[in-house]
Design goal:
This protein is an alpha/beta fold. It has 13 helices and 5 strands. The radius of gyration is 41 Å and the shape is flat.
């Protein structure tokens, strides 16, 4: 909000000029203000003297101070009611309650310590390594040397030098002395951009591929690589095997390309077989673009997802036939 260049005492003095007989236009021209500003001042300060204005200002300040005091007392009561529901005995419990109050009520550390009768120095105190840890530190330095070693290897080597040191003591000194290695950051994969599914206008414009798995009657798992053309929903192949790594995916796609021709693009999810270096290199060598979809977005590969339930029905129909063939062949072997 823009602050006025006139103080409240000056505004009252300007308003009194009208009472002395000056016209509003002359007063506004003299002080460089507008008529609207003059009438707003008159509505707010009319009939007030400088002493009354100062008294009103003092009362407003006193009122705001009392409001702050009441708010602080109300907050203190609320904090104590919340904390008293927990059993606080030891200094560690008090420190835990101080951290809880600071995080939930957004108050300063000194105020929280004063309410809970906890020492402020405990928060700032840094434990010093005692002299009895110096031999352990010297052994750790000797074992590490110029190379970098992890905690488990250091504990084993130090205990070979001196078996009386426990692994807990060695680990504490190793960590407090700053010998601990930094954690290796987990590599984060870049999310693929959104790629909505569409119906091509001609055949072999784009193929959709996906895996499907089922369990045979004997409990063994079987996988199927399904390939369709979204243009006419034609199934380009269903290749069954117990295991289908990236090399077999390439073989099956090569077989389908020899029969139906090469597509311009292949749409698939982010399975390990499809994001492998072998499959990506094969796509690049055959001049086939990879129509990639974001992670956990099967709706963007909807054509093959619609085909998979139909293939599942075919699997269920074939199970009794396979079981019967196997039983007949086993009877012939026994004869």
């Amino acid at each position: 909000m823009k602050r006025s260049k006139f103080s409240e005492e000056q505004i009252i003095a300007i308003l009194k000029e009208q009472e002395q007989g000056l016209k509003v236009m002359e007063i506004c021209r003299k002080h460089g203000i507008s008529d609207q500003t003059f009438h707003n001042w008159k509505k707010k300060y009319e009939g007030m003297s400088v002493k009354e204005l100062r008294r009103v200002r003092e009362l407003e300040q006193e009122n705001s101070r009392l409001k702050r005091a009441v708010a602080d007392l109300t907050l203190d009561v609320q904090i104590l009611k919340d904390v008293n529901s927990k059993k606080v005995v030891t200094s560690a419990d008090k420190e835990q309650c101080v951290n809880y109050v600071k995080s939930n009520f957004s108050i300063t550390h000194s105020r929280a310590c004063k309410l809970l009768h906890c020492s402020r120095g405990r928060h700032y105190y840094q434990k010093q390594m005692p002299l009895k840890d110096e031999p352990v530190k010297a052994l750790i330095i000797k074992v590490i040397g110029k190379s970098k070693k992890g905690r488990k290897k250091v504990i084993t080597l130090v205990q070979k030098e001196n078996a009386q040191y426990s692994k807990y003591k060695i680990r504490r000194v190793y960590k407090q002395s700053g010998f601990a290695l930094s954690k290796r950051m987990k590599r984060k994969r870049i999310q693929n951009p959104s790629n909505a599914a569409y119906v091509p206008l001609q055949a072999n414009e784009e193929w959709a591929i996906d895996f499907m798995q089922d369990t045979l009657y004997n409990g063994r798992r079987i996988r199927s690589l399904n390939i369709i053309d979204p243009y006419n929903r034609q199934c380009k192949g269903m290749f069954l095997a117990y295991s289908i790594p990236a090399i077999r995916v390439i073989e099956y796609l090569t077989t389908a390309i020899e029969i139906y021709g090469k597509p311009k693009a292949i749409r698939c999810d982010n399975g390990p077989e499809f994001i492998s270096k072998q499959f990506q290199l094969w796509l690049e060598n055959n001049d086939i673009s990879w129509s990639k979809i974001p992670k956990a977005s099967p709706q963007q590969n909807c054509h093959i997802e619609r085909f998979n339930p139909l293939a599942q029905v075919l699997f269920d129909l074939c199970q009794p036939i396979i079981k019967k063939i196997n039983s007949i062949s086993s009877r012939q072997v026994t004869k």
